[in-house]
Amino acid sequence: MLRGVIVRGMGGLYTARTPAGEAYVLRCKKKFRRLGLSPLVGDEILFTPGEEEEHGWVEEILPRKTVCVRPPVANVELLLIVAAPVPAPDLLLVDRLLVRARQQGMDAALVVNKCDLDAALAGELSRQYARAEVPVLPVSARTGQGLDDLRQVMAGRLCCFAGLSGVGKSTLLNALTGLGVETGDISQKIQRGKNTPRHAELLEAKGLRVLDTAGFSLLEMEGGMDPVTLKDAYPEFAPYEGQCRFSPCYHASEPGCAVTAAVAAGELDPQRVERYRELLADVRKAWRERYD
Ligand code: GDP
Ligand code: ZN
Description:
Elements: E1 2-10, E2 13-17, E3 23-28, H1 30-34, E4 44-48, E5 56-61, E6 67-68, E7 73-74, E8 78-83, H2 91-104, E9 107-112, H3 121-129, E10 136-138, H4 147-154, E11 158-162, H5 169-177, H6 186-192, E12 201-205, E13 208-212, H7 258-264, H8 270-288
Helix pairs in contact: 2-8
Bound molecules: guanosine-5'-diphosphate and zinc ion.
C-alpha cells in the first residue's frame, strides 16, 4: 500500500498524490459508503495503485485533523481570511470564520488584500485584532506587496482561503503559486455563470500547499455550538475569565461583567465585543432550535 493525499475528487474518481509527487487515480471501496464516509480533498490516505491503466483503490482514510462541510475539505491547518477595501469588509463574517477555525484547532490569519487601493485598512484591522492573537497581513495581489511575508506564514501548512466574493482570493492564489487558477474577472464570470461552484482542489507549488475552493466564500463546519463555549474562541477575553459577578458569564449584558468593564476602560475593542454579542445571539438561537 502507498500513502498519499487526495488532491481532487469528482464523479467518484479521486486523484491522490504521493510524497514523491506521483499522481494516481483511485476509486473508493464500498465499505466507506457503508460507514457514511467519503474521502475529501486534503485527506491523507492509504491506497493500492491500479495495474497499468486501471484505477486503484482507496483503502484507508487516516484520522482527520480538521473537517469542513462546505467546501468539503479535510486537514486545513491554516485558514487565511481575506478582506479588502472593496468589497467593504464584513467583520462579522471575519469573526465567524475565526470562531470556526478556533473550534477546530486551525490557525487563522487575516489577509488584507488590495493594499494598493487603501493602505489604511490593514492598520485599522491590526488595531481591532491586536489582542485577538490574529496576525494581520497587508498584501496586494496586484503589486506583489507583502506576498513574501504571506508565503512565510503559509509555508509547511495546508492552507485555505476564505472571505467574501471579490476580495481577491483567486488572484492571490495565482500570484502565490504561479498556477492559472480562474479568477473572477468579469468576462470569465459571464462565461461560467456567477455562482457555479467548482470542485475543491489541492494545489502544491513553490513549497506551498493550498486549497483552491473557488465558488465557496464561506467555510462551514458540522454541528452547533454550545453558546457558553463561544467566548473560548476569543483569546482577548481570557484575562477576564472568572472576574465577572456571575459564573459562568456569557459576557453579554450581565451586571458586573469584567468584559464590559474592560471595554469601558479602553482595554478591549468595543466593535469586536459588540460583534461577539451579535454572534452570541445567533449561536444561542441555533442552539435553542437544534432539536426542532
Ligand atoms: P475572489 O472572488 O475572492 O476569488 O476574487 P478575485 O480573485 O476574482 O478578484 C476580484 C477582483 O479584484 C478582480 O477584478 C481582481 O483583478 C481584483 N483584485 C484582486 N487582487 C487585487 C489587488 O491586490 N489590488 C487590486 N486593485 N485589485 C485586485
Ligand atoms: Zn462577563
